[in-house]
Amino acid sequence: MGLVETKLAIIPGAGGTQRLPRVIGASLAKELIFAARIVDGKEACRLGLVNHSVEQNDTGDAAYLHALELAREINPQVLNTRFSSSVDLSTGLAIEEACYARVIPTKDRLEGLAAFKEKRRPNFKGE
């Protein structure tokens, strides 16, 4: 992956000049953009551009299979909580507090604590 538009005497579109520096820092973003450098999956992972990099398999679906594995790790009963840097810290903390307050009185919270104590998988019921 890369922002290679400078090879065409144009600048990256779709906010590339704004988003990349926010992820990897200004100096490294400038280097990648000015040099029109392409990075492979391992380098993209090292830079924090992606969360995972997997070697391709014979059937060409390694990334898909890894994504499914990750999805299975995510508990489907988790509240729909948004973690976002698009709000200021005070607002983010208020959102977190409101979500936490909704979780406290639930039976699922008690089940989660019991399962942790008993070293077993929780059996959530959405209650």
From TrEMBL:
GO terms for biological process: fatty acid beta-oxidation. Pfam families: ECH_1. The lineage of its organism: Eukaryota, Metazoa, Chordata, Craniata, Vertebrata. The keyword Cell membrane does not apply. InterPro entries: ClpP/crotonase-like_dom_sf (IPR029045), Enoyl-CoA_hydra/iso (IPR001753), Enoyl-CoA_hydra_C (IPR014748). It comes from Fundulus heteroclitus (Killifish). Belongs to the enoyl-CoA hydratase/isomerase family. This is AU RNA binding protein/enoyl-CoA hydratase. One of its GO terms (molecular function) is enoyl-CoA hydratase activity. One of its GO terms (cellular component) is mitochondrion. Keywords: Lyase. The keyword Lyase applies.
